[in-house]
TrEMBL record:
Protein name: ATPase
Length: 124
């Protein structure tokens, strides 16, 4: 469901590769790397947009993209379960409700926790 300009939109996705986690985990890590690279380069295809990576870890990242569209995105690779989780919120036009500042690590931790529960023994 889409909302009018100025209202926050939400997209959440979980991608999971079935089968052997050695293979699926490698695929998840590769896809994560490609997604981070694409996000860093988004200004090349959309010059009015400006990406800023706000948390950059080997398997977790968050970013804000500013411009005509304002986007907050969070991405987690969980190779132990062959899974990637993504959460993105965006608005076009001036936001009717200002963005509440939340620590990026808090959001990223909250995204990993259900994966640890769903894939038993995948977290230490």
């Amino acid at each position: 469901m889409t909302h009018p300009d100025g209202q926050w939109q939400l997209q959440a996705q979980i991608l999971h590769w079935r089968g052997d986690t050695a293979r699926g985990g490698a695929i998840a890590a590769t896809v994560f790397g490609a997604a981070v690279t694409a996000l860093r380069a988004c200004q090349l295809g959309a010059p009015k947009q400006s990406p800023s990576v706000t948390d950059d870890e080997p398997t977790r990242m968050s970013a804000v993209i500013s411009g005509p569209v304002i986007m907050h995105t969070y991405l987690v690779a969980h190779p132990a379960s062959s899974t990637i989780s993504e959460l993105t919120l965006w608005t076009s036009g001036p936001a009717q409700v200002e963005w509440s500042v939340i620590n990026d690590s808090t959001v990223l931790d909250a995204m990993v926790a259900p994966l640890c529960e769903a894939y038993i023994a995948s977290c230490s």
